């Protein structure tokens, strides 16, 4: 038995199965034009005479420039400032290989006997083409797997220390809200269907590409451009990942668990059971409550949901880059509406100041109770060609279902073309009326009324005559007829 145990231990250590030596970080496009490659090793203490090689086939033999008792080893070019880096430093001359390519390249690490220790094939598609390095996520995964590399969180990377992407813990990046049972189709494409909101409590922006959401059954969703509102989650801000048609991820009934992972590291996880349609689970002071959804917003306990009460909220006013609209402009407002237990359907939207409307009222109906609606509503401001309105801050008001919301909107300037057109139309109309009046004067304009209709005026039709004019015209007709009859009678008698 002792011999067997000895043999097993000998085999294990001879194979170095507990040893790790990998390419851990690559800076291929630095802002200061000084590239570096970081090696992590729990096996070696000295990499002198090791070889680094790129896809061109050019290789460099590592020469120790500074020794530090550390698991990190940094391969640097000449003139690289490593004075404040806590790692062993190895110099290789003017360039690493032929210079690390900015589009894609291969990095090969060999030991002093020319045996390949690790190989990484990278691409700018991994990230890191903006002064940030590429950092390895996991030692256990294949070195060239794109999902095992991520752009560092800081300019200049993290040479000689833990990769920045591994320094995230549950206090920094958390699952903040999720909607397991939305109204309608759970498997709908974004922005509908199920979703999970993440909150960034770090003091720096985080790129979420490559992070993974996992449920209790092991199903995984990798966060990417195709399923999130924003891959870059700013400090103290939110990002939503949509299931986007991925079926069966968030259970509506029974126990479920959600994990936020990066590589093999669990960043945060939450458990829940028995959801309710149209309500989201929200983190309130480390407790979870079913509330009216508040995507991309702070969870506020006072907004606890009451399904019988309707709610209207103006989410956004699309005013353009200058954050204002002009008189005569058409613009849109994005509304979120929840219809509770009410038989009222009508909703009105308009713009006003001091109870004076400066827009047409846009009206629409919502018919189904206990349903959340997200609606873009168009509005048109009055042109203000006569300057009866002042520029300044007005109120966009939405009212209906016994509730109301309002939001400030800046209104400045007016549409010159629109007003010029109205002035031209008005001048044209005035010129026409003058001409018509001159014609009417010949016939007695006081007795003839012309309808203000362009087509009728052009054709010269008399739309209405007064009773006096009708009497005069009738008398003339009778006189003419009488004369004609008299002439006929005279002629008839003479022929006899």
Short précis:
The chain is of the alpha+beta class. The protein has helices at residues 2-15, 416-443, 454-459, 467-495, and strands spanning 21-27, 36-41, 51-53, 59-61, 63-66, 72-76, 88-91, 104-110, 116-123, 132-136, 149-155, 173-179, 195-200, 206-207, 212-215, 220-222, 232-233, 237-242, 255-262, 265-273, 280-284, 287-291, 311-318, 325-327, 330-339, 346-353, 356-357, 362-365, 371-380, 392-400, 403-414, 448-449, 464-465.
Structure notes:
- The chain folds into 4 domains: 13-166, no CATH class; 173-303, Immunoglobulin-like, CATH 2.60.40; 311-414, Sandwich (Immunoglobulin-like), CATH 2.60.40.10; 417-465.
- Helices cover 16% and strands 38% of the residues.
- It is built from 4 helices and 33 strands.
- The protein has helices spanning 2-15, 416-443, 454-459, 467-495, and strands spanning 21-27, 36-41, 51-53, 59-61, 63-66, 72-76, 88-91, 104-110, 116-123, 132-136, 149-155, 173-179, 195-200, 206-207, 212-215, 220-222, 232-233, 237-242, 255-262, 265-273, 280-284, 287-291, 311-318, 325-327, 330-339, 346-353, 356-357, 362-365, 371-380, 392-400, 403-414, 448-449, 464-465.
- The strands form 8 sheets. Strands 5-7-6-2-1-10-11 form a 7-stranded mixed beta sheet, with no helix packed on it.
- The longest helix has 29 residues, at 467-495.
């Amino acid at each position: 038995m002792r011999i067997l145990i000895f043999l097993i231990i000998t085999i294990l250590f001879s194979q170095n199965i507990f040893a790790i030596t990998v390419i851990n970080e690559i800076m291929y496009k630095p802002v200061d034009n000084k590239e570096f490659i970081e090696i992590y090793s729990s096996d070696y203490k000295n990499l002198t005479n090791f070889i680094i090689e790129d896809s061109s086939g050019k290789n460099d033999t590592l020469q120790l420039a500074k020794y530090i008792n550390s698991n990190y080893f940094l391969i640097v070019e000449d003139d690289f400032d490593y004075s404040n880096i806590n790692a062993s430093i190895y110099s290789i001359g003017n360039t690493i290989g032929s210079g690390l390519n900015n589009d894609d390249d291969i990095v090969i690490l060999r030991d002093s006997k020319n045996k390949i220790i690790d190989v990484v094939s990278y691409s700018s598609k991994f990230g890191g083409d903006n002064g940030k390095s590429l950092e390895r996520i996991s030692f256990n995964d294949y070195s060239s797997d794109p999902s095992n590399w991520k752009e560092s969180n800081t300019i200049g990377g993290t040479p000689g220390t833990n990769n920045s992407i591994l320094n995230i813990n549950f206090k920094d990046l958390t699952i903040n809200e999720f909607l397991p049972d939305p109204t309608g189709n759970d498997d709908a494409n974004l922005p509908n269907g199920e979703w999970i909101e993440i909150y960034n409590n770090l003091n720096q922006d985080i790129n979420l590409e490559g992070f993974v959401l996992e449920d209790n059954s092991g199903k995984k969703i990798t966060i990417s451009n195709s399923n999130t509102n924003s891959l870059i989650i700013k400090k103290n801000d939110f990002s939503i990942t949509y299931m986007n048609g991925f079926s069966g991820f968030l259970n509506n009934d029974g126990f479920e668990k959600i994990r936020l992972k990066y590589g093999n590291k669990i960043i945060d996880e939450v458990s829940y059971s028995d959801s309710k349609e149209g309500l989201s689970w929200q983190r309130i002071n480390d407790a979870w409550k079913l509330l009216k959804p508040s995507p991309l917003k702070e969870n506020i306990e006072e907004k606890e949901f009451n399904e019988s009460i309707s709610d209207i909220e103006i989410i956004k006013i699309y005013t353009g880059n200058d954050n204002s609209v002009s008189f005569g402009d058409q613009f849109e407002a994005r509304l979120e509406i929840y219809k509770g237990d009410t038989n009222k359907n009508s909703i009105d939207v308009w713009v006003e100041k001091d109870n004076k409307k400066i827009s047409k009222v846009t009206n629409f109906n919502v018919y189904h109770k206990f349903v959340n609606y997200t609606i873009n509503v168009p509005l048109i401001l009055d042109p203000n060609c006569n300057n009866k309105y002042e520029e300044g801050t007005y109120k966009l008001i939405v009212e209906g279902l016994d509730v109301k919301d309002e939001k400030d909107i800046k209104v400045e300037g007016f549409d010159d073309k629109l007003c010029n057109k109205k002035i031209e139309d008005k001048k044209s109309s005035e010129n026409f009326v003058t001409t018509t009046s001159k014609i009417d004067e010949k016939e007695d304009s006081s007795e003839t009324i012309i309808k203000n209709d362009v087509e009728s005026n052009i054709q010269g039709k008399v739309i209405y005559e007064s009773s006096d004019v009708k009497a005069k015209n009738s008398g003339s007709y009778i006189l003419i007829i009488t004369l004609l009859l008299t002439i006929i009678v005279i002629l008839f008698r003479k022929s006899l």
